[in-house]
Amino acid sequence: MARFDIWIISLLMVMHAAGAEGRTGAVVQYVTDGDTIAVQMKGKKKSVRLIGIDCPESSRNSKARRDSRKKGGDLNKIVSMGKRATRFVKGIIKKGDSVSLEFDVQEKDRYGRLLAYVYLKDGRMLNDVIIRSGYASPMTIPPNVRHRDKFARSYKHARNNRLGLWGE
After folding, report:
1. Which architecture, in CATH terms, is 24-126?
2. For 51-96, what is each residue's pLDDT tens digit?
3. Which end of the chain is more exposed for a tag (fewer CB within 10 A), N or C?
């Protein structure tokens, strides 16, 4: 193996190891909705949009109306499902809980929210728990695609087993 190949492999191994350790600690302030939370991080309150998931809207806003038109669904049902997803997330995390954030390629969205995979104290990834339990669909927006395959498997599991919102 060429010296350059060994150097590249070593660099990739270091980057992979840093990914697991490169998380940032935060404290939950509140759950905004099924796919957004607020945290205290480095002394500042930050809004965090969970990467790779999309929950139904929990209020009658412009996105809920767009989703209703696009999918031909009832606006009231969409909002009801969004409220169920929000309650589910509130049942998992509470104000004062310690979490860790893992960032992907893009750290903020166009609204200034942090984009992150959120890890619970027990090591589970909140984003995946929400999908696997049937309260969100995967939503892959490049370049943040690190866990898209895991999310696709979790979504299939939830749909096949009629979990959460898919049980209706």
Report:
1. Beta Barrel (2.40)
2. 999 998 877 777 767 877 887 778 888 888 889 999 999 999 999 9
3. N
